[in-house]
Amino acid sequence: MGAELRWLALGVVLGCRTTASPEPTEERAAASVASAGAAASADKAGGGSTAGGNTAASSTAAPPAPRTLSYEHVCMGTRCTIQAYHHDEALFQRAVHAAMAEIERLDRMMSTWVPSSDVSRINQAAGNGEWIAVSSETFQVLEKSLWIARESEGAFDITVGAFKGLWKFDEDNDGSLPARAEVLARRKLVDYRDLLLDAARSSARLRRPGQRLTLGGIAKGLVVDRAVAVLRAAGLKDFLMQAGGDLYAAGRHGEREWKVGIQDPRAAQEQERSTGSSFALLSLADLAFNTSGDYERFILKDGKRYHHIIDPRTGYPVEHTRSVTVLAPSSFLADTLDTAVFVLGAERGLKLIASVPGTEAVIVDARNKLHVSPGLSGRLRLLRPPSEGP
Ligand code: ADP
Ligand code: MG
Questions:
Q1: Is the CB–ligand 1 distance for residue 157 below 6 Å?
Q2: Residue 33 — pLDDT band, cuts 50, 70, 90?
Q3: Rounded to whole angstroms, what are the CA distances from 244 to 4, 122, 221, 224, 285?
Q4: Ligand 1 atom closest to Cα of 76?
Q5: pTM surpassing 0.85?
Q6: Ligand 2 midpoint to CA 255 (Å)
């Protein structure tokens, strides 16, 4: 849960937020994503914003018509949006504020930016033998991290936190690259088998001094699921909950399913503003849709891209993948898999996806070639090939 403001992988009907225009068509909705992403840094600082898409009618006794209601704010260091198809704006507001409170509660447990978080305390105690008691949510994320680490044979490894301060892709990004010797030295600290868990006491520790965890590749998905549960409990059925590239689509958008776009990893900014940033569209109902990309947090140096997903075996950013989108029944599972598949690459990544029931993936490799899991054939609508670029 780093501190990025990323270009959104998708989104629907944000145009309504400012323009009270009629409901956009699905295509226009997908195309509006990019401008929404580009506007992310202009997010309201204080408490987010909500807006309705059109005005509820009227003076007669007709029941109020559902409409698109939107909220956006920065959470977990990224841009979070909630959109619902509902008639009651007051209910929407209450639901959104409860969901945001839940997100903040979980972020305080799992972020490395919060010194008192569960994860920070585990990191501070690395190597000293002390067991650190953590919340049930953090424990669940740690257990899942070890599961995917084993499944991916170490391609996914939350002890890549050891690279903190060396690879600088968060708000510490000053454009500098680390010396090779330092990368190789830190790489020795990366090994998920040194994360020890005690389920009976909901405790964890790291075996060696200097080791560090980061849950940036996995925790946001669990948080999105929890926010979705809060939104449902508050009375919403049809909504999109999005945090950066992690999205859950609940129910429907009126007569249609929610339609989302997959971000073109190399879309030029001008193109994003005019025709949108998606190269493909998908319809979703009660499904998570998460994208990991090398375009989110990166440094371009001498025509070469260095980004925030690290291959634990080399200590360097993964070079064979540009983006991975995973569909899954939960955002937690989708977030767990997207980073793992990114590191594994298309061939091994699709094998992993095939082994986990209910999941699908779309991968853009370093040569811009698309790899799509068999279950998505006929469901993915390609708009154009992904753009070329370094
Ligand atoms: P986000 O959606 O926030 O970009 P991703 O799911 O794409 O997150 O995962 C990227 C994050 O995962 C990185 O910022 C870093 O914190 C963490 N990470 C990087 N490489 C690995 C890896 N090999 N295994 C596990 N986590 C990783
Ligand atoms: Mg992930």
A1: yes
A2: very low
A3: 8, 26, 10, 10, 19
A4: 3
A5: yes
A6: 31
359 lines ligand 1 (CB under 6 A): no
Q: How many of the other CB atoms lie within 10 Å of CB of 168? A: 19
Ligand 2 geometric centre to CA of 361 (Å): 13
| Residue 353, C-beta contacts closer than 8 angstroms, at least 6 positions apart | 326, 337, 341, 359, 360, 361, 373
* CA-wise closest residue to 36 among 55, 17, 23, 21: 17
The gap from C-alpha 331 to its chain's centroid, in whole angstroms, comes to 8
216 lines ligand 1 (CB under 6 A): yes
Find out whether the beta carbon of 160 lies less than 6 Å from any atom of ligand 1: yes
Give the span between the Cα atoms of 81 and 74, in whole angstroms.
Answer: 8
Q: Which of 145, 155, 214 is nearest to 351 (CA)?
A: 155
Q: Measure Cα distances from 308 to 128, 184, 252, 301 in Å.
A: 29, 17, 34, 14
For 27-31, 247-251, 282-286, 293-297, which range has the lowest pLDDT when averaged over its residues? 27-31
pLDDT (0 to 100) of residue 296: 85
326 C-alpha vs ligand 2 centroid, how far in Å? 9
Which pLDDT value is given to residue 172? 86
- Give the Cα separation of 63 and 59 in Å (integer): 11
User: Taking Cα atoms as reference points, which of 39, 125, 40, 31 lies closest to residue 77?
Assistant: 40
Pocket test for ligand 1, best of 78, 171, 224, 309 (most atoms within 8 A of CB): 309
Look at residues 229, 199, 208, 234 and name the one whose alpha carbon lies nearest to residue 94: 234
Number of the ligand closest to the Cα of 110: 1
Q: Is the shortest distance between the CB of 220 and ligand 1 below 6 Å?
A: yes
Label residue 327 by pLDDT band (50, 70, 90).
very high
> What are the two backbone dihedrals, phi and then psi, of residue 248, each rounded to the nearest 5 degrees?
-125, 130
Does ligand 1 lie within 6 Å of residue 263's CB atom? Answer: no
Residue 10 reports pLDDT greater than 80: no
Domains of the chain: 118-206 (1.10.3980.10)
Check pocket membership of 308 for ligand 1, CB cut-off 6 A. Answer: yes
What are the pLDDT digits (tens) for 72-97?
999 998 999 999 999 999 999 999 99
> How remote is the CA of residue 337 from the centroid of ligand 1, in Å?
11
* Cα–ligand 2 centroid distance for 174 (angstroms): 24
